[in-house]
Every structure is written in structure tokens, then in C-alpha cells.
Amino acid sequence: MIGIGMSNATRTSTYLYSQMLSNTNDVVMKKVLKEYADNYTYANDALQSSLQDLSNMSFDYAFVDVTAAKDYPNSCHNAYRRFPGLAYPPEMARREEYLVQICDIALGMIGKLLD
After folding, report:
1. Which domain holds residue 42?
2. Model's pTM, two decimal places?
3. Count of beta carbons in the 10 Å neighbourhood of residue 9
4. What is the DSSP string of 4-36?
């Protein structure tokens, strides 16, 4: 599951950076897209860290890392609220929900290892 989450985060970050390049005239949108892309990069990094934690049998740290990865997209969603007039794109809502679901499944598995 973590590999799937990493793939999702990487694809989403790449997608957002490409959108940032195509929206060169809108400074506010560019700022939001960059912040959003960076957060998906951070989510990917957190998921990579969780793999290392799992290989070291540090299940509690893996749980924390996956929880962080799950939360990064939510902060992106909140970024849109700071800029009146910007609508949260449905495509991003779909991608966010997908990563959250993947992380929830991974957290459930790690939780079983902690029991």
C-alpha cells in the first residue's frame, strides 16, 4: 500500500508542477499550485521514511510517517481557503481522497503490527 501511495503522491506532484507551468499568468494560482505540489512531495518523502521504519521494525515511527503523509494533502485543501475566488479543483479532491484512503489502509495494517 505504501508503494501505491508513493506512486500517487509522485504523480500528483508532477501533475501540479506541470499545471503551474501552464498557468504562468496567474500569480496566485501559481503560488497555490507550488505549495500543493511541494506538499505532495513531502507526502512521498514521509511514505519513503515509513518504508525504512517498517524495515527496521519501528512500527510506531512508520505510523507517524504515514499519518503525516495522509495530512499533507489536507493542508493543500486548506490553501485554497486562504485565497477567495479560487475553487478547489475536483481533480485534486479526487487525488487527495485517493491518497487519504491508501494511507488509511496502510495505517490499519501498521496498527495491527503495533498490537
Report:
1. 2-114
2. 0.89
3. 27
4. HHHHHHHHHHHHHHHHHHHTTT-HHHHHHHHHH
Q: How many residues are given for the chain?
A: 115
**Cβ contact 96:2 at 8 Å:** no
Task: Identify whether the C-beta of residue 111 lies closer than 8 Å to the C-beta of residue 63.
Answer: yes
Q: How many independent structural domains does the chain possess?
A: 1
For residues 101 and 1, what is the distance between their CA atoms, to the nearest angstrom?
Answer: 10
Residues 34-83: pLDDT tens digits? 889 999 999 999 999 999 999 999 999 999 999 999 999 888 777 777 87
Joined grid coordinates for residue 29 = 494560482
Give, rounded to a whole angstrom, the gap between the first and last alpha carbons of the chain.
19
In a 3-state reduction of DSSP, which class is residue 106? helix
What CATH number is associated with residue 41?
Answer: 1.20.140.40
Instruction: Find all residues with CB under 8 Å of 53, minimum gap 6, and list them.
Output: 59, 61, 62, 65
